[in-house]
């Protein structure tokens, strides 16, 4: 056999081994997304950072889903209009595309539907869809961007949220060390981290945290084995279904970039990954992890941090003469 043929044969065996190892794991690597309409993505990025979508002119999507801090605000619960304390922890916007639904209780089925919610939520951006359309439509610089994205200059709430959703679809984080390991790079993670992954699997964590995102694909009861104690009043899916059996049932959070998205759980009560792992083992699996086991799982979870989106902040167009004036210090509209 010639050296060329021998090298090809060896390469084929190595490639087959890597493929077999990948195929044997219940997790797929995250891959970059294909951008089919760059103009729509660019418009969505502008609107994602656009504070004039809020009543005060101060809050944007990025306020609670900060792209420089893992797509979250790192607060127990978010701060909205007039410093209102939100009722629940903000999930990350990174890798949000492809989940079974959006929000902890799954009330939005798509990213576009999710984007529409905070705009009109009185505790968040506190505007209305009608006012948001009026404001964006009154800013002359947006006309050319809507035309490039949609073919004409028409502004409506559907186009606003579709554009934001298309931008959010691109916010993926590939090339985590764990992804490199999945693809065959045995040195991408350490033996200690690998033990954490093996413990993660053998403990049953992947019953809920599965798929490429290690979560986001199902709804589960918080406190499956032992009741989860919390002062947070959010009832999860019950708020949507009205059924008592759905109380404390939430969408399983994804674990990609989880080391960046503290604090944890719907109530933001777990300040550290170590605490989150211990609580999950206790209330979901009936397991009491040792400090060593906890450290192993945490070490594995940190290998899930991928390449963060490299976002060049958009230059937002100046307001036009017809744009409503904002006064964030004025009394709330419903104030007596």
| CATH homolog superfamily of the largest domain | Cytochrome c-like domain
Question: How many helices does DSSP assign?
Answer: 12
Q: CATH topology of the largest domain, anyone?
A: Cytochrome Bc1 Complex, Chain D, domain 2
Q: Mean pLDDT across all residues, rounded? A: 92
How large is the share of residues in beta strands? under 5%
What would you call the shape? globular
Unreliable parts: 1-21
SSE string, helix = H, strand = E?
Answer: HHHHHHHHHEHEHH
> Which percent bin holds the helix content?
25-40%
- The class by helix and strand makeup works out as mainly alpha
Over the alpha carbons, how many angstroms does the gyration radius reach?
A: 23 Å
Whole-Å distance between the termini? 89 Å
At the first level of CATH, the class of the largest domain is Mainly Alpha
The description of the largest β-sheet is: 2 strands, antiparallel
How are strands sequenced across the largest beta sheet? 1-2
Total number of strands: 2
The assigned CATH architecture of the largest domain is Orthogonal Bundle
How many structural domains in the coordinates? 2
Binding site for heme c 1: 61, 64-65
Domain Cytochrome c: 39-147, 191-305
Cofactor: heme
Signal peptide: 1-23
